[in-house]
Amino acid sequence: MMVIIQIISALLAIGLIVSVVMQTSKAESFSAAMGGTDSSQFRKGTREELLARLTKYFAIGWIVAMTVGAVIWYSTH
User: Fold this and answer.
1) Domain span at residue 28?
2) pLDDT tier for residue 46 given thresholds of 50, 70 and 90
């Protein structure tokens, strides 16, 4: 059971890292909007919203998986 929880935790952690890395920072968005260098600024809203939502889900899932793993580990030791 612990192996399954560890695998799920690792996959959620990788998903969390990837979703955070793929997001643009607020400074990049602001400078692109002011400088006019980003031609896809109107289409980025849906992508950024999706990444923000995925980040929240991965973070909540990772916290739940780690908590369940800790409870299982403490109950067996």
Assistant:
1) 2-76
2) confident
